[in-house]
Amino acid sequence: MEMDRAEMEKRKQMVLDMCTCKSCPSFVECGEEGGFCFVTIGKSGCISEEKGCICGGCPVYEKMELSKMYYCLRGSEKEQT
Protein backbone atom coordinates (compact mmCIF):
# COMPACT_ATOMS: atom_id res chain seq x y z
CA MET A 1 0.00 0.00 0.00
CA GLU A 2 1.37 3.39 -1.05
CA MET A 3 1.65 6.12 1.58
CA ASP A 4 0.51 9.62 0.71
CA ARG A 5 3.03 12.45 0.92
CA ALA A 6 1.84 13.67 4.33
CA GLU A 7 2.09 10.19 5.86
CA MET A 8 5.56 9.70 4.33
CA GLU A 9 6.75 13.00 5.87
CA LYS A 10 5.22 12.06 9.24
CA ARG A 11 7.06 8.72 9.24
CA LYS A 12 10.30 10.36 8.11
CA GLN A 13 10.10 12.78 11.03
CA MET A 14 9.43 9.89 13.43
CA VAL A 15 12.53 8.12 12.09
CA LEU A 16 14.68 11.24 12.50
CA ASP A 17 13.36 11.81 16.05
CA MET A 18 14.24 8.24 17.11
CA CYS A 19 17.42 7.87 15.04
CA THR A 20 20.72 6.88 16.70
CA CYS A 21 22.92 7.21 13.58
CA LYS A 22 24.98 10.03 15.08
CA SER A 23 26.17 7.66 17.83
CA CYS A 24 27.47 5.08 15.34
CA PRO A 25 31.22 4.48 14.93
CA SER A 26 30.76 4.73 11.14
CA PHE A 27 29.00 8.11 11.29
CA VAL A 28 30.82 11.08 9.77
CA GLU A 29 29.71 14.57 10.79
CA CYS A 30 28.92 16.52 7.64
CA GLY A 31 25.50 18.00 8.30
CA GLU A 32 23.44 14.90 7.53
CA GLU A 33 20.64 14.11 9.99
CA GLY A 34 20.87 10.33 9.80
CA GLY A 35 17.80 8.16 9.27
CA PHE A 36 19.56 6.33 6.46
CA CYS A 37 17.25 3.34 6.88
CA PHE A 38 14.29 5.39 5.68
CA VAL A 39 13.45 4.98 2.01
CA THR A 40 13.30 8.71 1.18
CA ILE A 41 16.63 9.38 2.92
CA GLY A 42 18.76 6.45 1.78
CA LYS A 43 22.54 6.22 1.84
CA SER A 44 24.89 8.78 3.30
CA GLY A 45 26.76 11.07 0.96
CA CYS A 46 29.61 11.36 3.46
CA ILE A 47 30.16 7.96 5.08
CA SER A 48 32.52 5.77 3.08
CA GLU A 49 33.85 3.20 5.55
CA GLU A 50 32.23 0.53 7.74
CA LYS A 51 33.69 1.10 11.21
CA GLY A 52 30.97 -0.65 13.20
CA CYS A 53 27.18 -0.70 13.05
CA ILE A 54 24.58 0.01 15.74
CA CYS A 55 21.51 -0.27 13.50
CA GLY A 56 20.28 -3.38 15.30
CA GLY A 57 20.03 -1.49 18.60
CA CYS A 58 18.23 1.54 17.19
CA PRO A 59 14.57 2.06 18.24
CA VAL A 60 13.70 2.69 14.57
CA TYR A 61 15.07 -0.76 13.69
CA GLU A 62 12.62 -2.44 16.05
CA LYS A 63 9.64 -0.17 15.37
CA MET A 64 9.91 -0.54 11.59
CA GLU A 65 10.77 -4.26 11.83
CA LEU A 66 13.99 -3.84 9.87
CA SER A 67 16.44 -6.66 9.23
CA LYS A 68 19.47 -5.26 7.38
CA MET A 69 22.54 -3.35 8.59
CA TYR A 70 24.80 -0.49 7.45
CA TYR A 71 21.96 1.53 5.93
CA CYS A 72 24.36 4.48 5.72
CA LEU A 73 26.46 2.69 3.08
CA ARG A 74 24.13 0.08 1.64
CA GLY A 75 20.87 2.03 1.44
CA SER A 76 17.40 1.56 2.85
CA GLU A 77 15.80 -1.80 3.63
CA LYS A 78 14.13 -1.71 0.21
CA GLU A 79 17.41 -0.94 -1.58
CA GLN A 80 19.13 -3.90 0.11
CA THR A 81 16.42 -6.42 -0.82
Total beta strands: 0
Secondary structure class reads mainly alpha
What percentage of amino acids are in beta strands? under 5%
Could you give a short account of the major beta sheet?
none
Low-confidence stretches: none
Q: What is the H/E string?
A: HHHH
Q: Work out the radius of gyration.
A: 12 Å
Let me know the average pLDDT. Answer: 94
Terminus-to-terminus distance? 18 Å
Amount of helix: 25-40%
Q: Which oligomeric form is depicted?
A: single chain
Shape field = globular
Count of discrete alpha- or pi-helical segments spanning 4 or more residues: 4
Task: Describe, in short, the structure shown.
The chain has 81 residues and is mainly alpha-helical. Helix content is 33%, strand content 0%. 22% of the residues are buried.
Q: What are the SSEs and their pairings?
A:
Layout: H1 5-18, H2 59-63, H3 71-74, H4 77-80
Describe the structure.
The protein has 81 residues and is mainly α. Helix content is 33%, strand content 0%. The radius of gyration is 12 Å and the shape is globular. The relative contact order is 0.21. The model has no long low-confidence stretch (mean pLDDT 94).
Features:
mainly alpha; single chain; 81 residues
